[in-house]
Amino acid sequence: MCRTAFRFRPAFPMSHAFALELLAPARNLESGIAAIEHGADAVYIGGPSFGARASAGNSMADIAALAAHAHRYSARVLLALNTILRDDELDGARQVVIQAYEAGVDALIVQDMGLLELDLPPIQLHASTQCDIRTPAKARFLQDVGFSQIVLARELDLRQIRAIADATDRERCALEFFIHGALCVSYSGQCTISHAFTGRSANRGECAQMCRLPWSLKDADGTPVADRRHLLSLKDNDQTANLEALIDAGVRSFKIEGRLKDLAYVKNVTAHYRQQLDRILETRPEFARSSGGRSTFSFTPRPEKTFNRGSTDYFVNGRHGDIESFESPKFVGAPVGRVLGVSGRFVTVEAAEPLANGDGLAWYGATGELQGARVNRVDGGRIQLVDLPQGLVTGATLYRNVDHVFEKLLAGKSAERRVQVRLRLDDTADGLALTITDEAGVSATATLACDKAAPRDPLRAEATLRDSLAKLGGTMFVTAAAEVVLDTAQPWFVPVGQLNALRRAAVEALAAARAAAWQRPPRAVPVDPPARYPDTSLNYLGNVFNARARDFYRKHGVELIADAFEANHEDGLVSLMITKHCLRYSFNLCPKQVKGIRPDPMTLWQERGDGERVVREPLTLRFDCKKCEMHVVGRRVGKGTRPQLGD
């Protein structure tokens, strides 16, 4: 009979200042578990409602299961509850928070300040990127009203990030920054174009992604500049080369975008950044991971192999060209060859890389639209496609956007995360005691009452003890025989079956000890007296949509508070989108680049393929050169006259 006991200290009691967190997206339970297994220190996931990705909701039962799995590795689960709320939704949102707290969620990601006025459980609060955090004053305010982590605007450069870090207390509030994935062209939380033309609000989790549609551009004289191109579509974010610079600037949580992305993307991209951060940590002993365990992979991570629109580091190193994805908002893939001939579904290819059955190929047709098909069979330089290729001609460049061989590597088990432990075997009055201690100092002991016999071959007996006790396969722990300390009078002969029972009991006790050691991060206490908001007025872009949010801002010194755009009170011309992406700059028409050019307004049209205008009134582009910003100006389309966008 084995008996167990354990002792522990709180797992990973590390301050914000020195813990580095890799934060991965979870579309669902399967995706969240995969993110943890592939090295995430935390995952963020949507609940049953009120998340900024309305189509990525999850049950509380699944969220509880994810939290239980994550906490095995001292990893966190963050719930995205980051939409703006109507008055009649506040109580429902509060119930979601209560359920999330009971499910083991560690923090909420929120946008609506009305939530801070509700009686919530003591759960930690994180400020969503929808809060539009671009200035030291805004960041300091959010810290002082009780946020423990704030997601910075994607548009910031290293100097601006450093200024925000200097203005905030790194022990109280961690800075989070997106390092990979899709880029919103607008400042997050400052885009109302979807609601204006479709009634689907990005602030309410229903963005229609009008920025990914084709648009036509004309200058102030009506001269065409670009025709039916994806002018508001950006390449995807990739900060691989800037991770250490971001750490030095003050970022502590490194966020991967993608709560709508598939499982292969989550596995591949999470593993990639886990390896990148671990390499940095090897040379920066002043920092450490914010969770436990180490992941090993059965594949080599390659972010370019899963969905992306090309890569850019955006504005982290200042403004530069080539941030746009004008040709297509889809995953084009890497060039793999040139077409030598087309005959029905058979294509002769001069391939730069080997192709495989099941690959996905893409090409640009005669009209410039991206086309594609799956490969049915490869026979040397001749491939057979599943469908007839549309618009594929001799001389066209082929791109591969589905690498079947790589996808197959990710389809099954592709990672294993294990926690390093040390084992010590001691004598007791009536048998043996096995103590297991993990990398965080959590310990558990199991005892076994047994007869101990002197071995005939001490060296062999010692090897048997070490090997038997170190067999942790099938558990979340790993060790080597060299890390098994035999603190016994001699290497006793004990039947292997009894040693296995002792080891299993100790492992179960350690798992229970680690669960007991996990401490949910505390809710921050707001400063008293209440911090003053940086401004005394808020316009429709303040996103105030309920009375509690209005109460919050009044308490913090805001005197004039307009309703959110979603209240449908703005009927005139307003900025529907504010962005650092500048079409004048993209087309070499920037007054700072070309002498004599004035920043006159331009117009955007959304047209059908036959040239019929879908948006009856053009959108006006106004350029604030002092701030290097572009405003997309238009008016809300009245209910009942809303156009259908797209072809």
From TrEMBL:
Membrane-spanning parts: none
Q: Respond yes or no to whether keyword Metal-binding is given for this record.
A: no
Leader peptide range in chain numbering:
1-19
Peptidase U32 collagenase domain residues: 398-514
What keywords are annotated for this sequence in UniProt? Signal
| S-adenosyl-L-methionine among keywords | no
Q: What is this protein called?
A: Collagenase-like protease
Species, as recorded? Aromatoleum toluvorans
